[in-house]
Each structure stands twice: as structure tokens, then as C-alpha cells.
Amino acid sequence: MSQEFATLSIGDQTYKLPIIVGTRGDKAIDIRTLLKKTGHITLDSGYMNTGACTSSITYLDGAKGILDYRGYAIEDLAAQCSFTEVAYLILHGELPTFEALEAFKHDMRRFALLHEDMIHFFDNFPPNSSPMSILSTTVNSLHNYYPEMDDEEDPYGGYSVTAARLLAKTRTIAAFSYKKSIGHPLVYPSPRLNYCENFLNMMFDRPNLPYKVKPEFVSALNKLLILHADHEQNCSTSTVRMVGSSGANLYASISSGISALWGPLHGGANQAVIGMLEGIHRDGADFKKYIDKAKDKNDPFVLSGFGHRVYKTFDPRAQIIKKACSDIMEEMEIDDPLLDIALELEEHARSDDYFISRNLYPNVDFYSGIIYRAMGIPTNMFTVMFALGRLPGWIAQWTEMKEDRENARIGRPRQIYSGNTRREFVAMKDR
Ligand code: ACO
């Protein structure tokens, strides 16, 4: 195929810039030589139009509501796979064979324990500490306990041991942080349980009240984690790549991704949604009031769980989660008034011109919290759940960045300076 070019005119000069076409037809103007050739940079706040890398992990088409991991439709993966299988796919690029999956699960079991010294960390966070802060801090400090994970000479090739360790230990850290927050004894990971069963057991088993892992919850949790497993370049993933681009280790990079995810405009939205639905419920379900508040530019209130930077027709994850949410409530005969509030709020918003004209639809976070509530997971753990799901994506993106030797560069955006021009310095005594 012959190379296409875009033409840029600045003054009386014209420049030819190559057009890059992805395997699914997505197009970019390659400006990598722009500064050198023209002396200009591009200005793109929020990176709305900036591609920072090429990637073979996730494809999404926001206009058509398509999301694929490694070429497989999210709908198929969510319906037919376990989270462990999808994590393997994202990390290794191919679906596992039976033997490969067994080996991966085996790694996940053998790496699940935390070094006993790390258990003391949990004693020293103040009560009511945010589980996201505990997660980010503890993941960062894994580097001190498992320095061999930095070793690129991993006997299994690449970063696969590191990846399995991080996935297994982060799940343990997440459950421990919850147990500590409620003052209960820690429940250690069991080698007999699969990934999601193990997590639920560590969260809810008690010395005198053994927890019976419910298959409906395991299935819903697998689905939720799969739907969060990667989402190409976004605030947290780009942070992981950016931190890793300086040569920082994987733990430090993932820990930064967790911090980026924490905010209410990103992974923190699932927590914000429940707060919002509870507020509307307490307020007598006055939908008009909240729709009007969301539309009012002088009011900081937004409809949490609505809108997306990329999806402008529907978020395919939200559709799957909405159905999973209704299914689980029915199967388990759970009656949560927040589900009715959410359904009605969606209906009101979707018939309002403000939301229609701006293409604002429920996103992945709108219904996920209601499922987590049904499982007994407290609201302040929701973003931790998101982080658990996103882990394979972050690790795969970090690894892809490391292995892309051709484009290996420290992330370093430019700016347009808008401050003072050079001024004469005045000594303190003369000011
Ligand atoms: N409620 C009310 N108005 C909204 C909302 C919302 N949830 N989302 C966007 N808008 C409005 C904006 O005010 C803007 O209006 P304007 O054109 O009159 O100025 C317009 O819709 C376009 O919105 P932008 O802010 O330009 O969209 P952007 O792509 O920058 O932001 C974002 C996307 C951050 C997700 C935004 O929709 C939002 O804040 N949503 C609520 C928080 C949320 O659910 N975040 C989770 C996202 S999914 C995830 O991270 C996993």
C-alpha cells in the first residue's frame, strides 16, 4: 500500500506528514518530526487527539461501541471466560491452552501469600484509611520484598512470573486492607480456591462464621473484572506507561496507575455513583432536581457514571454490566432500591436533550457498584475492585512499552509558556 501523507502549511512553507493506519483502520498523522522540521509543537490539553504509542492489546471504537482485547470481542470474553483466562490473554496475546491456564493458575496460587513482614504494614495505617491509599503504598513496597521481580531474566520468559505475582499478591493486599479496616483477623489465601473464589473468601470468611462462596457471585465478579481488564490509553494506563518510561520498576509504575485511577473522574466514579444514588434515594427520588443540577454549569454536580471520553453511542461494558446486575438481583432475590433509582435516572437522562445532544450514556461504572453491594463489598472498596480488574492491562501495557525498543523514549510532553517574560532580579532589601 502506498504511503499517504497529510499536508501542513505554516506561512509559505508546506510539510508532508505521514499518515499511519492501524490494523483496524484507525488513522493518525505522524508528527514525530514536527518540532524538528517546523519549530512548532502541538497543543492538546487532556490529550484528546494525541496518540502516545502504538499498541496491540486493546481496540476500541467509541462511535460503534466496540471493545476487543487482542482481537476478541468483549461480549464473547465476558460470557465465556474466567478472569484468569482473560488476564492470560491480555498478558500473553493468545488465549491459553488448558495446560497453560493450569500453569498460570498454579502460579497465582503459589504467589498469593505476602511476606509476613508486610502484614505489619496493615497494622500501622490509621483507622479509616482509604483502601486505595493502602493498595497503592503496599504495591509500591512489593519492590523491596521481591526485588528479583525486576529481573528481566525471568526463567519463564519476559515478565510472566512478575505478572502472576503481582496479580496474586494485589488480590491478597486488597482483601487484607478490607479486613484490617473492619478490625477482623486476616484470612490467608487458600491454594484450593480459584482467583475470584479466593478473593471473596479472604474478604468474607470469619473464624466462627465460615463463608460459603456463592457461584453466582463468582460468576458476576469474573465478569466485572474481565470488563475492566484493559481499556487502551486512559488516565491510569498512560500514567503507568509514563512512570515506566523513566525506567522505574513495574511496582512503582502500577502503584502510580492505582493513584491515577483513584480520582472520581476515572476509577473513583463507581464509588461516586453509589453516593449519588443514595443521595437521590434519601431525597425522595427527585430525579428532575438532580438532572437539573447536572445540567447547571454553575453547579459542580455531574451525573457520576455518565459520559465517556471515547464512547459516544454506548459503552459496551455498561450494557453487559446492566444485564448482569438485573440477573444477579433476580437470581439471588436481592431487592436494592438503588437499582430502581439507577434505572429511572438513566431513563430520565436518556430522554433529556442535554444528555442526548452531548452523547452522554451510562458508562462502565454506573451499574457495577450495585453488583458489588449485592456481594457485600463496601463502597470504599469499589475502586480497589476496579484496580484488581485493570491490573493485567496495566502490566501488559507496561511490558509492551518496555519491549518497544524502537520507540523507547522517556515520556516528556511540551508546553506553551504563558508566564512572565525575563525580568530583572531585585534583591530582597530593595523589594
Ligand atoms: N454529567 C453532566 N454533564 C456532563 C457529564 C456528566 N456526567 N459528562 C459530561 N458532561 C458534559 C460536560 O459538562 C460538557 O458540556 P458542555 O459541552 O456544555 O461544556 C459535555 O458534556 C462534554 O463533556 P466533557 O467534559 O468534554 O467530556 P470529557 O470527555 O472531557 O469527560 C468524563 C469525560 C470525565 C468521563 C465526563 O463525562 C464525566 O465527568 N463523567 C462523570 C464521571 C464518570 O462517570 N467518570 C468515569 C468515566 S469511565 C472511567 O474512567 C472508567
Tell me what you see in this structure.
With 431 residues, this protein is mainly α. It has three domains: 5-66, Rubrerythrin, domain 2, CATH 2.20.28; 85-235 and 253-258 and 383-397, Citrate Synthase, domain 1; 269-375, Cytochrome P450-Terp, domain 2 (Cytochrome p450-Terp, domain 2, Orthogonal Bundle), CATH 1.10.230. The protein is built from 18 helices and six strands. The strands form two sheets. It has a three-stranded antiparallel β-sheet with strand order 1-2-3. Helix 3 (83-92) runs parallel beside helix 18 (382-403), helix 9 runs antiparallel to helix 14 and helix 10 crosses helix 18 (382-403). The longest helix has 22 residues, at 160-181. It is globular. It starts with a strand and ends in a 28-residue tail after the last helix. 38% of the residues are buried. The model has no long low-confidence stretch (mean pLDDT 93). Bound molecules: acetyl coenzyme *A (ACO). Residues 265-267, 269, 294, 302-309, 358, 360, 363-365 line the site of acetyl coenzyme *A. Acetyl coenzyme *A binds next to loops.
Protein traits:
single chain, globular, Rubrerythrin, domain 2, 6% strand, Citrate Synthase, domain 1, mainly alpha, 431 residues, 18 helices, Cytochrome p450-Terp, domain 2, binds acetyl coenzyme *A, three-stranded antiparallel beta sheet
Summarize the structure.
The chain has 431 residues and is mostly helical. It is built from 18 helices and 6 strands.
Topology:
Elements: E1 5-10, E2 13-21, E3 27-29, H1 34-38, E4 58-61, E5 66-69, E6 72-73, H2 74-80, H3 83-92, H4 98-110, H5 116-124, H6 131-145, H7 160-181, H8 195-204, H9 215-227, H10 235-245, H11 250-261, H12 269-282, H13 287-295, H14 316-331, H15 337-350, H16 353-357, H17 365-375, H18 382-403
Antiparallel strand pairs: 1-2, 2-3, 4-5, 5-6
Bound molecules: acetyl coenzyme *A.
The site of acetyl coenzyme *A has 18 residues, from loops.
